[in-house]
Amino acid sequence: MTSHKSILVGITGGIGSGKSTVARIFSILGIPIYYADDRAKWLMANDPDLKKQIQVNFGNESYSEEGVLNRAFLASKVFSDEEKVKTINGLVHPAVRADFETWAYAQKSPYVLKEAALLFETGSYKDLDKVINVSSPIRIRISRVLMRDPHRNEKQVNDIIDKQLPDEEKNKLADFVIKNTDNKLLIPQVLEIHKQLMKV
């Protein structure tokens, strides 16, 4: 991965950990940020090769006649079927990886950030030079998500948390850990990591 001018840094964290807030602080410092989950949605809706592969694997109903992604149909296909989850991830993740590489190569910054919920779970952290994990106690995460997404209930949030790698595991794999708790300020932690990355 040395062909990139910028250092590739991942930023991850479980649902409700506050990784988007942390990413915003980095962007205020002028660091370019690639939002992997948003780009994945965009690619599924707009990338002709990916659209074709999704139709081959999940049927033509995956898209409307106008070519609009039928999220409800796809979700119903993938929901609770581990094999189908693997299939869709196997199509989307390589497309996101290639898209990120192209994007990162075009940036003029000492380092760039790739923000993604499942960096460790998908193995995509191996493509990066450094990884930041935003860590937060589960009770705080649940209350944050319930405030942010009133349509979710506590059981749904717990189900999502159960599918993600526990913080202890992520913290071991990460190069930097940002603790997002009620008694730790985020900005000094971000500035410290920023300073270290600018030196690399």
Automatic annotation (TrEMBL):
InterPro entries, per the entry: Depp_CoAkinase, P-loop_NTPase
Entry's Gene Ontology BP terms: coenzyme A biosynthetic process
Enzyme class: transferase
Gene Ontology molecular function, alphabetical: ATP binding; dephospho-CoA kinase activity
CDD domains per record: DPCK
EC number(s) reported in the record: 2.7.1.24
Subcellular localization: Cytoplasm
Residues where ATP binds: 16-21
Lineage: Bacteria, Pseudomonadati, Bacteroidota, Cytophagia, Cytophagales
Pathway membership, UniProt: Cofactor biosynthesis; coenzyme A biosynthesis; CoA from (R)-pantothenate: step 5/5
Sorted UniProt keywords: ATP-binding, Coenzyme A biosynthesis, Cytoplasm, Kinase, Nucleotide-binding, Transferase
Function of the molecule: Catalyzes the phosphorylation of the 3'-hydroxyl group of dephosphocoenzyme A to form coenzyme A.
Family indicated by similarity: Belongs to the CoaE family.
Name of the molecule in the record: Dephospho-CoA kinase
GO cellular component, one term: cytoplasm
Gene source species: Aquiflexum gelatinilyticum
